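To the wet lab folks,

You asked to see what we're planning to order before we commit. Fair enough. Below is the target structure as tokens, and below that is the sequence we designed to fit it. If anything looks off to you, flag it before the synthesis order goes out.
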């Protein structure tokens, strides 16, 4: 597989992210430091309290059971400690019980506060990513795959939560445990402590090597997750096409390939992880064995072995063995901490890679007020090419775009209340022309104006509230019919929704449904027919009551009878507003004030229906084709006009 194939949509931006986890704390920890600090303190107290029972047990063995030492505890005055053997015994039991209680209480506090911090950050990151995603240019969604975005919003934010909740707090626990155990061991017998802790530098070096080797593998694994999500989403969205073309085996193989790629990338990580954890346990086990060997010889021979000097009590030896075992688990846990750290680092790079994608279509610094809109629309020598769309970061991205201009030197004007229709063959640029009015894209040359104001000088919210858009690709959310009609005007009452539905010829079929306007339409409106979905979309535009209306083949999915009904509603709707309509069926726009014929991104004919028929050009040919003039239609097909 080529490097280009391996590159994910966010790679070019991810590479520019500097110290992503530090940035995560800088941007999201403020305001949540109280929970974080409380968790750290509680974690420290709980870990330190867990060291008390072994220390008490060692003191009790020497002082109470062997009568070989004083009943002394570090940092506690002797006057506070009991002197009698029985009192010392009960004191030891009570102190151990209290220490376990402290461990339990502060571990609970740590768990709650750490999760409040971690989940709070995850929530904020996910919301910010979604907010940024909504601000991204339309060109981003032309190039990028939604599965990649879903991987960021779900998998990557979840990885950050696991790091903040588990890895970060376990790192603190590790430091406290290792530091506390080392302090206790050096307090008891500094010479034997060196024997016990000799493996720690080797563990640190092993960890550094592991982190350096595993990091690029985590990056590739996260990319594979994004590609897998994209493949699954495409397969599910296209299930109807897959079934109708008997392509189940083909799709299964494509999912198999993506899944195998993810499997291979995951195994690359796991192979190292399975090497790392046993390696850490081996080093910790060697430290335990060395402690047992040296301490055992020290006690059995009644003399310090080798260069060591002094004495070692049985109680101290027991404490060493217990604490050496205690140090094995947190040190072996380093593998999981490193796993989660590297995973979180790769995920945070992807998160901030998304955050850092520049937004080119945005509000101007000093927007022009668009208050009372008359509806005059003007295009002045407008040209547009997808290849020149801002935001394309790589030459490969540009190469995949259209090389030639989609729109070239388009000029026209729609007076307030006029209807301007766009006709022409598929791919002529009709939809793209009207998307420039909404600033879904920005023209590279020329200007698009509303009431004399360049749309690039107007706030996006003002612009898009003044323009209603009904697309041929109708989208409905998984909700009720009423919710979909109300979308964008969420405070509209039921009466307004019904009026809009009646105007769009949607009321009759809605009333016949068992739940009426409360009928759920399913994902993307799958429970409704194409014509029903388009009528709901038209009702949504009616409810918005915009000054300018864009109809992008708004009746393409309805039968002739319904089309005539909707057309009457559209005629009433467009009486007092500027309308820009794209039509496949010329009969729906023959009464337009101006008809523009587009071909290869240029306006090749313009005029009224009668004017264009008299020209006997492309429009007349297309009209004759649709009117049933077989001879003219055959000639047009032979000439390649349409």
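Sequence we intend to order:
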């Amino acid at each position: 597989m080529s490097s280009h194939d391996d590159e994910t949509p966010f790679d070019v931006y991810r590479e520019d992210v500097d110290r992503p986890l530090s940035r995560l704390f800088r941007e999201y920890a403020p305001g949540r430091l109280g929970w974080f600090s409380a968790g750290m303190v509680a974690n420290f107290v709980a870990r330190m309290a867990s060291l008390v029972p072994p220390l008490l047990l060692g003191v009790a063995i020497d002082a109470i059971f062997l009568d070989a030492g004083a009943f002394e505890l570090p940092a506690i005055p002797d006057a506070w400690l009991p002197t009698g053997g029985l009192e010392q015994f009960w004191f030891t039991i009570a102190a151990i019980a209290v220490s376990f209680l402290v461990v339990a209480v502060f571990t609970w506090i740590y768990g709650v506060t750490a999760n409040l911090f971690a989940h709070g950050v995850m929530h904020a990151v996910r919301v910010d990513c979604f907010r940024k995603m909504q601000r991204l240019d339309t060109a981003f969604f032309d190039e990028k795959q939604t599965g990649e975005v879903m991987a960021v919003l779900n998998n990557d934010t979840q990885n950050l939560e696991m790091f903040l909740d588990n890895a970060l707090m376990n790192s603190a626990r590790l430091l406290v445990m290792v530091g506390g155990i080392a302090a206790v061991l050096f307090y008891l017998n500094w010479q034997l402590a060196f024997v016990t802790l000799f493996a720690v530098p080797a563990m640190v070096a092993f960890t550094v090597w592991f982190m350096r080797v595993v990091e690029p593998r985590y990056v590739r694994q996260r990319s594979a997750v994004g590609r897998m999500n994209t493949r699954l989403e495409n397969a599910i969205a296209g299930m109807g096409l897959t079934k109708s073309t008997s392509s189940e085996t083909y799709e299964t193989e494509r999912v198999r390939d993506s899944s195998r790629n993810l499997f291979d990338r995951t195994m690359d990580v796991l192979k190292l992880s399975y090497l790392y954890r046993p390696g850490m346990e081996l080093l910790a086990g060697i430290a335990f064995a060395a402690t047992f060997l040296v301490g055992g010889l020290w006690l059995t021979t009644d003399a310090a072995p080798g260069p060591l000097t002094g004495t070692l009590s049985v109680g101290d030896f027991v404490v060493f063995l217990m604490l050496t075992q205690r140090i094995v688990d947190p040190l072996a846990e380093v593998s999981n901490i490193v796993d989660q750290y590297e995973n979180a680092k790769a995920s945070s790079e992807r998160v901030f890679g998304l955050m850092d994608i520049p937004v080119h279509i945005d509000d101007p610094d000093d927007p022009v007020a668009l208050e009372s809109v008359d509806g005059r629309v003007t295009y002045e020598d407008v040209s547009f090419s997808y290849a020149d769309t801002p935001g394309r970061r790589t030459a490969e991205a540009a190469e995949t775009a259209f090389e030639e201009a989609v729109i070239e030197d388009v000029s026209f004007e729609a007076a307030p209340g006029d209807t301007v229709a766009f006709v022409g063959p598929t791919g002529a640029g009709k939809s793209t022309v009207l998307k420039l009015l909404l600033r879904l894209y920005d023209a590279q040359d020329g200007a698009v104006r509303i009431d004399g104001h360049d749309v690039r000088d107007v706030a996006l919210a003002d612009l898009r509230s003044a323009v209603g858009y009904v697309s041929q690709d109708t989208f409905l959310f998984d909700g009720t019919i009423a919710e979909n009609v109300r979308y964008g005007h969420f405070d509209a009452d039921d009466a307004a929704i019904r009026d809009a539905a009646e105007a769009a010829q949607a009321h009759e079929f809605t009333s016949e449904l068992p739940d009426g306007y409360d009928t759920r339409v399913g994902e993307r409106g799958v429970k409704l027919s194409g014509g029903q979905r388009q009528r709901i979309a038209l009702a949504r535009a009616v409810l918005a009551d915009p000054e300018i209306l864009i109809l992008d083949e708004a009746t393409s999915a309805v039968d002739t009878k319904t089309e005539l009904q909707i057309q009457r509603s559209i005629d009433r709707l467009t009486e007092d507003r500027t309308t820009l309509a794209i039509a496949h069926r010329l009969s729906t726009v023959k009464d337009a004030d101006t008809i523009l014929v587009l071909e290869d991104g240029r306006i090749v004919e313009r005029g009224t229906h009668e004017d264009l028929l008299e020209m006997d050009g492309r429009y007349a040919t297309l009209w004759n084709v649709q009117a049933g003039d077989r001879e003219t239609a055959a000639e047009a097909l032979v000439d390649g006009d349409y």
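Structural context that might help your review: The beta strands are 377-384, 407-414, 419-423, 445-450, 453-454, 467-470, 548-552, 578-582, 594-599, 602-607. The first helix runs from residue 3 to 6.

Thanks,
Computational group
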